[in-house]
Amino acid sequence: MENKDTGFSKELEADIKFLGFIETVEGWARAVWKKNPQLLDFYKTVRLSQVAWDLDVYDKSEKVRASWRKGKQVVFYNNQEHKDESRVVKANSRDELKKILLDSVRSFVPDPDDMSPEMEDYFFDYGSDWMARGIPTCWQEYNEYCRNPCYDGSLSWDEDE
């Protein structure tokens, strides 16, 4: 059915409006990111807290350790191709797992100037969340939920310990 005001079908008009919304949210999130440099620190702390959580679970559960010995999928970001790559990796010790998980989280750093599909998805997803909940004021608010809100900062983004 055609909308008489625009000459477009209602479906096409809805698609156009939705794409406009997506572009607005993503652009807004990129602008917010550029104006709030603490968001990068929040992002890094959240990712490190997730690694710390995974290491704690590894330490506490033989079933988890066994599954890592068999191999589990981990996502790494390929900066050259600007896309996520899932790899099956094995870890026979906590140190091996720590290196794998840190390499994984360090492989992706949000960049508001990168217009790749992965970054578009990232900024749209977080922009949508922040528009609804507000811009985070601390790292625990960065995601919709925080698995490890008491993270003590024991891991480093820049170096292996």
Characterization of this structure:
The model has no long low-confidence stretch (mean pLDDT 88). The chain has a two-stranded antiparallel sheet. The longest helix is centred in the N-terminal third of the chain and has 26 residues. A hairpin with a 4-residue loop joins strand 1 and strand 2. The chain has five helices and two strands. It has 161 residues and is mainly α. Helix content is 55%, strand content 9%. Helix 1 crosses helix 5.
Q: Briefly note the structural class of the backbone.
A: mainly alpha
How far the N terminus sits from the C terminus, by CA atoms, comes to 63 Å
> Low-confidence parts, pLDDT < 50 over ≥5 residues?
none
Main β-sheet, in a few words?
Answer: 2 strands, antiparallel
Total number of helical segments? 5
Overall 3D shape: globular
The arrangement of helices and strands along the chain is HHHEEHH
**Radius of gyration from the alpha-carbon trace, in angstroms:** 20 Å
| Mean pLDDT level | 88
Question: Helical percent range?
Answer: 40-55%
Residue share in β-strands: 5-15%
Biggest sheet: strand arrangement: 1-2
Q: How many E-type strands?
A: 2
Quick recap of the structure?
The protein has 161 residues and is mostly helical. The protein has helices at 10-35, 38-60, 62-70, 94-106, 117-133; strands at 72-78, 83-89.
Summary tags:
single chain; 9% strand; two-stranded antiparallel ribbon
